[in-house]
Amino acid sequence: MSYQIEFRHIKYFLAVADTLHFRKAAETLFISQPGLSRQIKEMEDQLGMKLFERHNRQVKLTHTGLYLKEELSKNLKNLETILNHAKLLETGKDGQLNFGYVGSAMQQIIPDLLLQFTKNHPDVLFSLKEMDNQKQIEGLLSQDIDIGFVRLERIPRGLKSYPVLKESFCLVLPKDHPIDASNFKNMGQLKNEHFILFDPEYSASYYEKVMGIFDDSGFSPLVSHNTIHAGSIYKLVENNFGISIVPKSLKTENNSNIKFIELTKIRQKTVLSAVWNPDNRNPILDKVIRLL
After folding, report:
1. 61 and 143 inside one domain
2. Fewest beta carbons within 10 Å, which of 38, 170, 194, 265?
3. Residue 192 sits in the same domain as residue 56
């Protein structure tokens, strides 16, 4: 059986399927609403399938339409990847890889990975974007990014992950704080301090792991500030707004106004994982995963 639908039909169908509103879809496509309705009707007639239910200005996808939306969206993303890769090949590049990452991955893991990779693949372009864990997961599922570096206990079904770094936590204190590595015994010494922590929206599972440190120490922290950037945490600690707990990979030697104490005697560790979508057809992705 052959179908005489064209790429424009698929584009119009997905616009309506995303908005479930013919007028709004027509506006995004810069065509008239009657013209869009005709194109959708033409597609349904060519396929011999009903894709939308229309009742009193309300538009719903049929069971068949929902299936087509999911499959066409996924496969059009693969087509876009293929065409973008072909365009890069035409300009003399081997391809492009889009990274998402939490800030700590940029301290050493990603720079080391890129240095290793570019030794054998010097003509690959890299796009790097700091994103919270949830936005990375969304980006991987939609294939807007090719690989992510997250701190999550669980990832959604359909994605794959590989742990690249398991590490301790560190306390961050102002340089003149009376507690230092020589007299630190346990977290109970700091129960009256104000804490500056990564925002739970940045990573709920990471935040819960940090809360577990306090639970094991027998007190609830006085959280004075939440932020999503290590630099903001360090600036607040430096100016005596509180103290903090961060992954060891965020330890820096470049700020003499703060100090770090590694928490080696607690059970909590944090894991940085590489995550990717196995449906992603970017040929550069497989090479990076093999290197990992």
Report:
1. no
2. 265
3. no
